[in-house]
Amino acid sequence: MTASGDDAPDRRQRADRGRAGHVEAGVVDHRTGHWTGVGAVAFVFGGLGIALREPALLLAGVVGAVFTGYARSAEPIPVRDPETGEPALSIRRRLEPDAPEPGEDVTVTVELRNEGAGVLTDVRIVDGVPPALDVTDGTPRHGAVLRPDEGVTYAYTVTATRGEHDWRPAQITVADPSGAVERETTVDAPTTLSCSLPALTSEQLPLRGLTTPYVGRVDTDEGGSGVEFFSTREYRSSDPLSRIDWRRHAKTGELGTLEYREERAATVMLVIDTRQAAYRAPEPGAYHAVERSVDAANRVFAALLDTGDRVGVTTLGPASEECWLSPGAGDEHRAHGRALLNSHPALSPIPPDEGLFETIRDDRREQLKDRQVTRLRRRLSADTQVFVFSPCCDGYVPTVARRLDAHGQLVTVLSPDPTTDDTPIRELASMERADRLDGLRGEGIRVLDWRDGESFAAALARAQARWSA
Questions:
Q1: What is the mean predicted confidence (pLDDT) over 380-397?
Q2: Which end of the chain has the smaller Cβ count within 10 Å, N or C?
């Protein structure tokens, strides 16, 4: 991907001398002040050299005066070729890999090239990294001396987050050889990093038994069509021949019909905690709990649809960014769900400016919390299972889970762990979170505690073993 950018020739304008800077069509010319005071020092040295008849002092004064005069007369370096009018600088970016998964490292290689005919003695670049991407290795800043038709290449690493991330124009500063005058401009090279969420195989997603009128894979306590033997019953004339118990007929002469454990589809609502309190990570720049929750929700969403289950998505977060996808199935529903999980504003990788109900009085805050839970419960059918994705760093989500469970919803809490124990305060926070999860388990609510650095599949397998024990 390549692009070049600069100020047009008719917009080129120098900064007035003595001014700190001048802005014209995205170009800033300013004096750095690097030579401030040198003229006065040169005058003093020259005066002392004459008074004391010291040639060395006089020479130092003359040299200082020459440099001061040069610096005062310095002009901004043109960033367009004076003969052709073409941009004097261009940049190219290369992303590797160009379609990563969330949390994967991406190497960004930047090439800065002098396309003009003059030497650029001091060029500095700050690349326009998207705000949602953290630089984890190297730096987007670089400096170089560029001769005509010469380029320089440097690289840095970012950690991918879901969605599409557009690079902003790179900030370029070009200084004259004396360093007295700088010209700042931008150079654009349209670059987009697309990061999509992966899927998870359905065999790794256990659901509690329940009944809805759709054939699927959740075992029920009713006989019917299926693959697992359930019971036998008396033969009816409408029964298919394939379900007749021929062994029984051979032994007793009586006809009987085989019943198999019937499977039904599940209706599942995925509820993702997107409050400010959920944007927690073990360390600055690490993969935070909301990103891990969305990643896991995407895997669950795709896997359940693969087996014919009906799945929806919603959030526990600011009401201004309502996110709701009613349970459904089919290819169109799958596309809507993946688009929502990848790009809905309520699921932004960047934390909201304020916490949920943060600016509201305490008494009113509790009322609104109750109202949000009540509204969610009323939008769910009685047989809807609820998967809540939250780090459970405070007591709000465990309270939500208990209230939904008390009203008959089958609730499972999938909790990415963002805590550490490297300091006493963090260890206390980790212990408090563990107590919250143990409290939910003690009330019969399933909990998946997903450790930092552990794959979701491994956490799910570990939870399955605990649930079946």
A1: 92
A2: C
